[in-house]
Task: structure prediction
Amino acid sequence: MKTLDPQEYSQKYLTDLAIPHIIYRCVGKYPPEVLEQWIGGKGTDTRYSVFVGAASSSQAVSMSLAQAYQLVSKNDAFLMGGVAIPERHLLKADEHLRVISKQQKGCSYFVTQAVYNVEASKNFLSDYYYHCRREGLPLMPVVLTLTPCGSLKTLAFMKWLGVNIPRWLENELCHSSDILDRSIHLSRQAFVELQEFGREKGIPIGCNVESVSVNRVEIEASIQLARDIKQIMNR
Amino acid sequence: MKTLDPQEYSQKYLTDLAIPHIIYRCVGKYPPEVLEQWIGGKGTDTRYSVFVGAASSSQAVSMSLAQAYQLVSKNDAFLMGGVAIPERHLLKADEHLRVISKQQKGCSYFVTQAVYNVEASKNFLSDYYYHCRREGLPLMPVVLTLTPCGSLKTLAFMKWLGVNIPRWLENELCHSSDILDRSIHLSRQAFVELQEFGREKGIPIGCNVESVSVNRVEIEASIQLARDIKQIMNR
Result:
């Protein structure tokens, strides 16, 4: 299936959406001058982007994440975010340091991978909080990504993507008579728990809902989940 | 410090406690005839015990856990329990099978090691539930052990004992101005979450509170925690 350029998609299909559009950019895909031009951009509105680096250190890229961050530092009207992967924290225990390093290079918010493992997210948020507190660094907003899962196929795909799904939660989904409804219920529950965890520590917690599936039912469920989370945040 | 035999402690100091006393037995410590005599025992009251096996497979023992279970099978008035270690499930993912094997050898309840990792406990309970449901086996009561932690010394000792403490929870304890109070708050929270998890699945959840410290303040806190849990269970 052909993929669309995020900037083009935003301009063509989302102009009616009167909220900031955060454009993702795989920085290694573009020649430096193209990305530089895009960052410089025209117009006076603040622009939002999340830069994504290479999928692995062996991937050939036209520009590193660090070089892209440097381009941004010249433009005050460009609000840059970074990716945070709480699951990586389970193994390497240094995700908070990676995030803080991105913060020092100009990232002012972070968006996570799909969150199904609350424990891993708490571990990351906790280390991020205590490190920033010790070093006197500001706590940037962390936007948690939620993803509905409507079938065993989507579940397998998410695992392939690297989403860590705790054993009990996988059991719940596999044995549910309505896996989509169950995944939404569990995602809401995870968000409430993590929002409260962040609130106690003063970490601004946001939410991003996305569907990793092209299945219509799952896309519609993600829209419903986004509405539910909005309600939870407005409580 | 001299340790007391649990049976002796129960008879000498706990006679006023008009509830069943569950006597722990490290079965490898006794010659077979001594354990056999104890299991046969006198009196008509039902007796309760939890048998504990060797600390490692290389430890020399006078009797294996399997042999001890065989002795019990001759006595109907003897209610035997087994140890469950949810943390082991994180690595080996077979703790539910170990428990079910003990169940088939006559164990009618299980007591866990100290629970600080809710995720590990949920994983174990979930696999236990779905396996029993699939095989048509009864769900035995699982008694969750809670342990107050009043100092960094006790925290280090618990970790040495093999208790798995999630990173975020260790941070909370280390940075708390009142570590004992914080550990009790977090233990209560863990119990409520796991009790609810068991309730949804029809797993009877019990609670055992113990102090791994000889510190008076921690022992008293464990008594308070036991009272709190009793209240939670009676809700």
Notes: The longest strand of chain B covers residues 78-84.
